[in-house]
Automatic annotation (TrEMBL):
<dbReference type="InterPro" id="IPR039420">
    <property type="entry name" value="WalR-like"/>
</dbReference>
<dbReference type="Pfam" id="PF00072">
    <property type="entry name" value="Response_reg"/>
</dbReference>
<feature type="domain" description="OmpR/PhoB-type">
    <location>
        <begin position="137"/>
        <end position="235"/>
    </location>
</feature>
<dbReference type="GO" id="GO:0000156">
    <property type="term" value="F:phosphorelay response regulator activity"/>
</dbReference>
<dbReference type="InterPro" id="IPR001867">
    <property type="entry name" value="OmpR/PhoB-type_DNA-bd"/>
</dbReference>
<dbReference type="GO" id="GO:0006355">
    <property type="term" value="P:regulation of DNA-templated transcription"/>
</dbReference>
<keyword id="KW-0238">DNA-binding</keyword>
<dbReference type="InterPro" id="IPR001789">
    <property type="entry name" value="Sig_transdc_resp-reg_receiver"/>
</dbReference>
<dbReference type="Pfam" id="PF00486">
    <property type="entry name" value="Trans_reg_C"/>
</dbReference>
<feature type="DNA-binding region" description="OmpR/PhoB-type">
    <location>
        <begin position="137"/>
        <end position="235"/>
    </location>
</feature>
<dbReference type="GO" id="GO:0000976">
    <property type="term" value="F:transcription cis-regulatory region binding"/>
</dbReference>
<dbReference type="InterPro" id="IPR006291">
    <property type="entry name" value="CusR-like"/>
</dbReference>
<feature type="modified residue" description="4-aspartylphosphate">
    <location>
        <position position="65"/>
    </location>
</feature>
<protein>
    <submittedName>
        <fullName>Two component heavy metal response transcriptional regulator, winged helix family</fullName>
    </submittedName>
</protein>
<keyword id="KW-0902">Two-component regulatory system</keyword>
<dbReference type="GO" id="GO:0005829">
    <property type="term" value="C:cytosol"/>
</dbReference>
<keyword id="KW-0804">Transcription</keyword>
Length: 237
């Protein structure tokens, strides 16, 4: 199979693609071919590294194998779909109809079986990228807490919560990074778009006020302090 096809599309040269593939030869093949076709390519050789890259960087497309060490492709796709609508193309040797159906039902945008033609892969990549940038997730829910980004509406146990603009932005950040420990510096830069001195307690005050509305009236607490590190939002039993 010939890689690259001899040209790079000008309009797509800055688009970023993440390849999560544990077979080194296949990963190298995809990286070389896609790079020659004008894309910026990152490679992860296992599911956990793929998860880390997805959480730390923005990609226009993800090419994902199913059988991965550490965290398989099914699990990684579910994690991705909790927060992102980035196009995902499964590239796997699993060719059973049941596997294709499962991949699509979990939220994959396309499914290509190995061995594959690079020309077909490239055509599918371009088709997915032409659909435009992924839309931001508009609905977030953890336990009985629900945030509607489009309507700027927050409810807990079906009751409407009244939040200030900063409280809404803070809650949106915590929900969009569910289960992750967020430092005070990260929270400050995202919510207030500036870096605060380490001894400034503005984040702590904002968290305390948000807890008073989101957590205090309800038995299940969702916002947690991680001593020495920051805060996280998670439904812990």
């Amino acid at each position: 199979m010939q890689i690259g096809l001899g040209y790079a599309p000008v309009l797509e040269e800055k688009m970023r693609i993440l390849v999560v593939e544990d077979e080194v030869k296949t990963a190298d093949y995809l990286c070389k071919g896609l790079s020659e076709s004008g894309y910026r390519v990152e490679v992860a050789l296992n599911g956990l590294d793929g998860q880390h890259l997805v959480q730390e960087h923005e990609f226009d497309l993800i090419i994902l194998d199913v059988m991965l060490p550490g965290l398989d492709g099914w699990q990684l796709l579910q994690i991705i779909r909790r927060k992102l609508q980035t196009p995902v193309l499964f590239l796997t040797a699993r060719d059973a109809v049941e596997d294709r159906v499962k991949g699509l039902e979990l939220g994959a945008d396309d499914y290509l079986v190995k061995p594959f033609s690079y020309a077909e892969l490239l055509a599918r990549v371009r088709t997915l990228l032409r659909r435009g940038p992924p839309r931001e997730v508009e609905q977030f829910q953890v336990a009985d807490l629900h945030l509607d980004l489009l309507r700027r509406k927050v409810t807990r146990n079906g009751e409407r919560l009244t939040l200030t603009n900063k409280e809404f932005a803070l809650l949106h950040l915590l929900l969009s990074r569910e289960g992750e420990v967020l430092s005070r510096t990260l929270i400050a830069s995202h919510v207030w778009q500036m870096n605060f001195d380490s001894d400034t307690n503005v984040v702590d005050v904002a968290i305390r006020r948000l807890r008073a509305k989101v957590d205090d009236p309800y038995p299940l607490k969702l916002i947690h302090t991680v001593r020495g590190m920051g805060y996280m939002l998670e439904a812990q039993e």
